[in-house]
Amino acid sequence: MAEQFTRFDAAEFLKTPEEMAAYLDACFEEDAGDGALIRAALNDIARAQGMTQVARDAGLGRESLYKALGSTGNPEFTTIMKVMKALGLKLHATAA
Fold it and tell me: pTM here?
């Protein structure tokens, strides 16, 4: 009998704003410096909340948001800030 596996999707487990913020915070800590993990986390959080609504709240087109947060995306910082605001998240800095 062959085992069947399903692909893990973090978006399925991000139910509350606190969980979303904790997930993004952990990704900030673990990102290699290229922003790929942060972009992927924002993608997961946006999908958890509903990509169409997030795009609307951010003032972006849905397709543009998918492209910006996709695996080959390279969003501008202004896009990241618009998305974070639409998600109800804030960017904070602390001393290393």
Answer: 0.90
